[in-house]
C-alpha cells in the first residue's frame, strides 16, 4: 500500500521550499523548487514519488503561493491555507525555510489548517485585480485633494480668497485651468502646484471611470441577483464576491461567512449585562460592504427601518441594532449553497441572492442568534 503523503510549502518570490510527511508524521524529505510552471510540475512530481499526495498546506496562497495553489488545484490536489508560523516560537527556536515548510505540513496533517485556498481564476479574480487598481486610484485622488486643501489654507491672501468656499468639483476645475506665470514668487508657485494636483485628480477620475465601465458589467454578469438587491451596488457586491472567492463551497455554513466578514457575534456579557458585539477580525472590506448595505437600506427599505425600531424598543442602542442588521444580512446563504453545489445545481448568483435576500419574515422571527430576547417581567 502506497504511503499517504502530506506536503507543506514555504513560499517565496523565486523559490518554494516543500516538505513531505508520511501518514505517521515522519519527515520524508525537504526540497526546493523554482516558482515556474516547470517548477510546480517538478514539486508535485517529487511529492508523488513518495506516495499518494493527500493534502498540501501552502503559506500565502493569496500572494507568493497563488501560482502553486492554482496548479495543485488543477491537478486535483487538496490545498489548505496555512497561517504564518508562531512568532514567539520562532523567536525561541529561530527560523529556517525547511523548518517553516515542515511546520506547514504538520499543520495541514494535524487539521490545524482547515481553510480551503481561494481559486485565483475566473470572474472573481478579475474583479479583485480591477478593484486593486480602482482602490489605489481612489486613495491617490483623496490624497491629492487633501494636499490641495492644505496648500489653499496657507496660500497668499488673494489666491486663498478665490478658492476658499468652493466645492471639490468647482475647486478642481478652477485650479486645473490656472495659467501660472514663469515667475518664481510664492503666488505663481502655489498656482502651479494647485494646477498639477487638480489635473492629477481629473486624470484619476478618468481612470476610475474606465475601471467602473469594466467592473459594472463584470459584477452584474457574475452575480446578477446580488446587485439587484436593495442597497447593493457594484462596489459592495464586488467586495463580497472577492471575500468569498470563486470556490464558494469552502464556506460551509452561514457562520463561516459571518466570521469571514467579521460579522460573527461575540459574547461581550459582563455581570448583569448580557449582550453581543461584532468581531474585529475578518475581511474588513467585506465588513464595510455589509455596513454600507445596512445604512443604505435604512434610508430606502421600510422593513429595515421597522426592524431597527423594534430593536430600539427592546432597549438596544442604535449601534447594537445596526450590528444585528449586519448579522442578518450576512446570514442565511452559504449553507444552502453547499447543499446545492453537492447536487451540482448551484450558481454563485443564486448563493448571493439567498445570502443577501431581504424580507420582513426573517427579521421578526425568534431565530435571531445575535441578540438574546429581552427578559419578560413577571406579572404582579
Task: Give a structural overview.
The protein has 380 residues and is of the alpha/beta class. It has 3 domains: 4-110, ATPase, nucleotide binding domain (Nucleotidyltransferase, domain 5, 2-Layer Sandwich), CATH 3.30.420.40; 123-222; 226-364, no CATH class. 56% of the residues lie in helices and 11% in strands. The chain is built from 17 helices and 7 strands. It has helices at 37-48, 66-74, 87-93, 97-110, 123-153, 157-163, 168-176, 186-222, 224-227, 234-244, 254-260, 284-300, 302-313, 318-330, 334-343, 348-356, 360-364; strands at 4-10, 15-21, 27-34, 52-59, 78-82, 265-267, 276-278. The strands form 2 sheets. It has a 5-stranded mixed β-sheet with strand order 3-2-1-4-5. Strands 6-7 form a two-stranded antiparallel sheet. A hairpin with a 5-residue loop joins β2 (15-21) and β3. α1 packs across α2 (66-74) and α5 (123-153) packs antiparallel against α8 (186-222). The longest helix is centred in the middle third of the chain and has 37 residues, at 186-222. The radius of gyration is 27 Å and the shape is globular. The model is unreliable at 332-380 (pLDDT under 50).
Amino acid at each position: 500500500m502506497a504511503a499517504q503523503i502530506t506536503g507543506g510549502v514555504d513560499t517565496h518570490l523565486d523559490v518554494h521550499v516543500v516538505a513531505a510527511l508520511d501518514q505517521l508524521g515522519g519527515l520524508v524529505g525537504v526540497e526546493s523548487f523554482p516558482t515556474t510552471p516547470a517548477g510546480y510540475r517538478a514539486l508535485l512530481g517529487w511529492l508523488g514519488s513518495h506516495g499518494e499526495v493527500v493534502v498540501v498546506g501552502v503559506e500565502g496562497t493569496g500572494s507568493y503561493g497563488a501560482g502553486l495553489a492554482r496548479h495543485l488545484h488543477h491537478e486535483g490536489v487538496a490545498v489548505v491555507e496555512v497561517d504564518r508560523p508562531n512568532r514567539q516560537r520562532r523567536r525561541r527556536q529561530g527560523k529556517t525555510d525547511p523548518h517553516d515548510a515542515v511546520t506547514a505540513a504538520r499543520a495541514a496533517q494535524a487539521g490545524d489548517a482547515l481553510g480551503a485556498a481561494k481559486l485565483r481564476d475566473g470572474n472573481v479574480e478579475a474583479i479583485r485585480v480591477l478593484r486593486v487598481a480602482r482602490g489605489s486610484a481612489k486613495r491617490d485622488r483623496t490624497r491629492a485633494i487633501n494636499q490641495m486643501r492644505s496648500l489653499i489654507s496657507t496660500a497668499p491672501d488673494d489666491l486663498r480668497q478665490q478658492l476658499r468656499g468652493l466645492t471639490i468639483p468647482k475647486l478642481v476645475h478652477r485650479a486645473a485651468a490656472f495659467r501660472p506665470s514663469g515667475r518664481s514668487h510664492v503666488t505663481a508657485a502655489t498656482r502651479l502646484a494647485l494646477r498639477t494636483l487638480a489635473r492629477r485628480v481629473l486624470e484619476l477620475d478618468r481612470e476610475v471611470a474606465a475601471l467602473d465601465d469594466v467592473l459594472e458589467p463584470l459584477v452584474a454578469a457574475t452575480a446578477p441577483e446580488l446587485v439587484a438587491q436593495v442597497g447593493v451596488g457594484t462596489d459592495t457586491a464586488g467586495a463580497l464576491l472577492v471575500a468569498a472567492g470563486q470556490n464558494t463551497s469552502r464556506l460551509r455554513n452561514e457562520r463561516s461567512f459571518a466570521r469571514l466578514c467579521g460579522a460573527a457575534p461575540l459574547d461581550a456579557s459582563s455581570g448583569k449585562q448580557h449582550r453581543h458585539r461584532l468581531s474585529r477580525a475578518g475581511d474588513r472590506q467585506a465588513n464595510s460592504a455589509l455596513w454600507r448595505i445596512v445604512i443604505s437600506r435604512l434610508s430606502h427599505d421600510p422593513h429595515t427601518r421597522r426592524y431597527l425600531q423594534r430593536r430600539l424598543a427592546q432597549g438596544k442602542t442604535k449601534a447594537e441594532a445596526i450590528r444585528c442588521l449586519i448579522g442578518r444580512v450576512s446570514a442565511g446563504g452559504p449553507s444552502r449553497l453547499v447543499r446545492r453545489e453537492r447536487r451540482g445545481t448551484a450558481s454563485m448568483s443564486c448563493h448571493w441572492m439567498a445570502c443577501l435576500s431581504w424580507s420582513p419574515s426573517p427579521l421578526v422571527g425568534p431565530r435571531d442568534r445575535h441578540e438574546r430576547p429581552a427578559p419578560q417581567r413577571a406579572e404582579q
